[in-house]
Amino acid sequence: MRAKQEVGTRERIVRATSRLMQRHGYEGTGLKDISREAQATLGSVYHFFPGGKVELAVEAIGHGDHEFAGLLRTVLEREDDPAAAMTACARELAAGMRDSDWMDGCPVTTAALESARRFPPVREAAERAFENWHGIVRDKLVRSGFPDDVAGDLAHTVVSTFEGAEMTAQIMRSTTPLDVAGTHLARLVDSYR
Amino acid sequence: MRAKQEVGTRERIVRATSRLMQRHGYEGTGLKDISREAQATLGSVYHFFPGGKVELAVEAIGHGDHEFAGLLRTVLEREDDPAAAMTACARELAAGMRDSDWMDGCPVTTAALESARRFPPVREAAERAFENWHGIVRDKLVRSGFPDDVAGDLAHTVVSTFEGAEMTAQIMRSTTPLDVAGTHLARLVDSYR
DNA sequence: GTCTATAGTTTGATAGAC
DNA sequence: GTCTATCAAACTATAGAC
Fold it and tell me: Which of A21, A114, B7, B44 is the most exposed place for a label (fewest CB within 10 A)?
């Protein structure tokens, strides 16, 4: 049985890229920073990612996508009531935000926003992430009995609002935007019952 | 009477910085890009902004703050009904987004997110912007008859949701997130009447 | 697969003539 | 106030030994 901490070089590089770009964005993250943080040499980085920084960013965004999707799924399935699930999600995001001392916001947007124009593959990776999260929320609402179109629209606003509230919380260094967003999303969902 | 297009060098530099950082972020915007876009020399840039890039970013975020606040105020005062004002805002943001071919999102967040940690003055400038926008929305709701605490909370979610929806729209290259957000915010506001 | 060395460019910032 | 020239450092990317 293998210790689960033991991860390969490639995986360490992806994780380091994801975390660094989450905090400093695409342009603010250097390949040397990545290789140092991942405890790998620059040669190894280019060995695994011959496409260079863009390829790395795409992979890192995919990693952030998966990470956030996991959190979303866990919390949504823990709460049976969809409105309660909204406040639970907000509470979870607020905790992560505060615990990292407002360092770790959305693992996708910080890097994606600034490079969406210049590097189309990066934007496309971010788009896949948003679609993934939207689908997870929509499915939860459909399983809770909402009609497909209502669930789809609500899921859009849920994702947008959590994204915006997390960003606002990060800038303001306060969980208030997330707390309030959770309450309001629960109320909005309830209003369609 | 002076032609209104005629702006001084300092103002041209601020505007160029704001636009470029809106699109490419803080690290993605070079001082040479700025001086070229502003049709000013590098010497002039440092003449007006001896504090260098950080001072420029703070000024540019203040400019974006003022710009977005103006749009917000205009649209909110045009619509008497607060719920209708929400959908009108969303429509306005969606139009700006589509017309720029998804280049120009929020003039503050793209630059602020990636540099909030490294350069505290940049984060503080972004915080002032968010507080300013929050106050504008809250005042509109208070004038519409909502109690102070309800209006304050709603204003938080309105700002968060518009921010998140604009970001999502930019990544997805679709106005749907903004359209849906407008509808839902109107419904949420109405639910407190 | 890992490592070092380095090429070639660009970056933020400064100096000093005009 | 404007301009050119330039510095030192950092960047992405590559080459080639092991």
Answer: B7
From residue A140, give the alpha-carbon distance in Å to each of A51, A70, A88. 37, 14, 14
Give the DSSP H or E segment for A84.
helix A82-99
Residue positions counted in chain A? 193
Going by C-alpha positions, the residue among A169, A58, A57, A32 that lies closest to residue A103 is A169
CA–CA separation, B159 and B80 (whole Å): 19
Q: Tens digit of pLDDT for each residue in B55-107?
A: 999 999 999 999 999 999 999 999 999 999 999 999 999 999 999 999 999 99
Q: What is the pTM of this model?
A: 0.97
The nearest CA of chain A is from the CA of B108 a distance in Å of: 11
Nucleic acid strand C within 7 Å of B43 CB = yes
- Sites in chain B below the pLDDT cut of 50: 1
Would the CB atoms of B171 and A26 count as touching at under 8 Å? no
Q: Is residue A3 part of a domain?
A: no
Domain residue limits at A77:
9-191
Residues within 8 A of B (CB atoms), A 44-63 only: none
Q: Which residues does chain A have within 8 Å of residue B183's beta carbon, measured at their own beta carbons?
A: 153
Q: What is the mean pLDDT of each run of 10 residues along chain A (193 residues)?
A: 76 98 98 98 98 98 98 97 98 98 97 97 98 98 98 98 98 98 98 96
Residue B3 inside a domain? The answer is no
Instruction: Check whether residue B113 has its CB closer than 7 Å to nucleic acid strand C.
Output: no
Cβ atoms A166, A105 nearer than 8 A: yes
Residues of B in contact with A23 (CB under 8 A): 114, 117
pLDDT of residue B3: 56
The span from the CA of B155 to the CA of A33, in Å, is: 39
Domain of B41, CATH number, reads: 1.10.357.10
Q: Is A64 on the interface with B (CB under 8 A)?
A: no
Residue A136 near residue A76 (C-beta atoms within 8 A): yes
D13: residue with closest CA to C1': A52
E strand spans, B13-75: none
